[in-house]
Fold these 3 entries.
Entry 1:
Amino acid sequence: MAVVAPTTAVCAVAIPVTAAMLLGERPSAGQMVGIALAIVAIVLVSQQRSPAGEAGHHTLALHRLPPGLGLALLSGVAIGFFFLALARTASTAGLWPLLAARFVSVGFFGVAAVASGRSLRMAAPVAAIVIAAGIVDMLANALYLVATRYGPLSLVVPLSSLYPASTVVLARVVLGERLSAWQGVGIACALVAVLLIVGVEL
């Protein structure tokens, strides 16, 4: 997760922001600093504590690419283009782009499950959690879509991609997980990034 989460999130930010700037958006100097700080925050808050027994293993692994990096890059690129595609839809399309995206994804994974012989049945408690997660996910995507129609893409994407910070805070508050020093720094960077991106003078 310490490799996958920041890699995916940073790619997802970089592609829409780069496209927005190529299309003519020009954030202020303070907002540019905020965007850069948001990327740093994503990397820091995604760091996980490593068990002491694995220290030697990680030291040995420094000379090769981390496992899962290639898939994380592909995932980040796909998410980045998904964010960009949603932002490029016309306001007259309403929320239909989200419905189309969900229809395609559900159909794709349904076919994949049937083709691999996997059962689609879930226990009732699991199904309830999945439905709740789906509702929250669709709400988040809908808010992102609306935000891109009222604000510049180069600012909306970095703000929406700071979700790892809220996840880390919730893990601390709800699950009692301890934050590492780097995660604490990352959360502070995220807060400053938000202030800079929305144009608050520090």
Entry 2:
Amino acid sequence: MREARAALAILAAGTSRRLGEDKTTADLGGHPVLSWSIAAAEAADVFDEIVVAAAPERLDALASLVGARHHRVRVVAGGDTRTASSWRALEATGAEVLAIHDAARPFAPAGLFARCVETARREGAAAAGVPLADTVRRADEAGVSLEELEREGLWQVQTPQAFRREVLEEARRRAGERSFGDDAAAVVNAGLRVRMVVGERGNLKITTSEDLAYARELVRKGVVSMAALTRPARALP
């Protein structure tokens, strides 16, 4: 039986306001931040195609950068919001399974992409994440602690996330003009289930200049390397 075609959409249309520079093209160990995710996704060997959703005003520049390094990757115009970029990516491919990943998470390994796609094939929707290990407290606007929250069952959600096409299309239909923090939230809003996939604690998100500096330090010290992230994904049970 033919396995459903799978595509990956890497969302790179954000403004990077808090960072002060385009985080997708910032240097990280001699490579653009974006290239780390592309390399790991290619090594996962589960995607028939990869598209990058870029801000329209940076479309040509990003297409030139990607084209020089990753010849099989297409760059398409993203939307004004993260959710709109996901819908644009859905339109850009006819794949039966679509994984969506934030370009700002360069340290997702090949195996995590593969696990999310396999789970989505089987269950319809999958989102990477890690169970919360720290104590969680609610505080008021002044920073005064109010209460400790029960952390059992709470996850810190990451990307990649992966979905069968019909799941995302239903989420889009139900969403209307609404925007969501991630694609799993849009799917849950449609009344559909998302299976959590245990992610990686090192799968950090670059949002601020401090995050980028920390990521560069991890690479400089050899704690993280592209060679390690692109090791072939292990066969799934």
Entry 3:
Amino acid sequence: MPIEPVSLRTSDGLTLEAELSAPEDAWAAAVLAHPHPQFGGNMRSIVPGTLIEALPKAGVAALRFNFRGVEGSDGQYDEGLGERRDIVAAIDALSDIAEGLPLVLAGWSFGADTSLAVGDERVSGWAAIAPPLRAIKIEDMVAAHDPRPKLLIVPQHDQYRQPDSAAEVIADWVNSRIEVIAGADHFFVGRVDRVPPLVLGLLEKLRT
């Protein structure tokens, strides 16, 4: 599937660089949010890179983007606040393609925590991949008590939030579940291929 460059416009006037891969007969859509901008995260990091290759082949329109201040995107790092606007801008860019279709926010690490803080009504669910559950204040994660489904994909040996700890944090969350990827660490070395089927599984459930 071809990957096309696109530009996003945020509500506070920034232009962000992004890439879109959208099959003509897409049955679902996903916004892919990358890891922490201050630690080398960008839209070509391994998890969004893997998802933008795998999801469109399965009929899902996928959009990845660079948060504000990363590479060719305007602005500067905003501690997860402005970055929520960036995710909404990505939803805006998918709105024509995804109208009436399931749309998930699929973020990795910082991107996962930030996605959980976005409660846009156009979102059907969240796929939080290796969420540290600390990059954003837990009380700001509006998804926690939202009835829409949350899937937390947690590596067995995650260096920042292991499965047992994640389960404690989300014990009172609504419609939330954890899938553990055995043998994986936070960076999914040798295990990144396990991520797309789980995201697709969530979308399939939203489809019915």
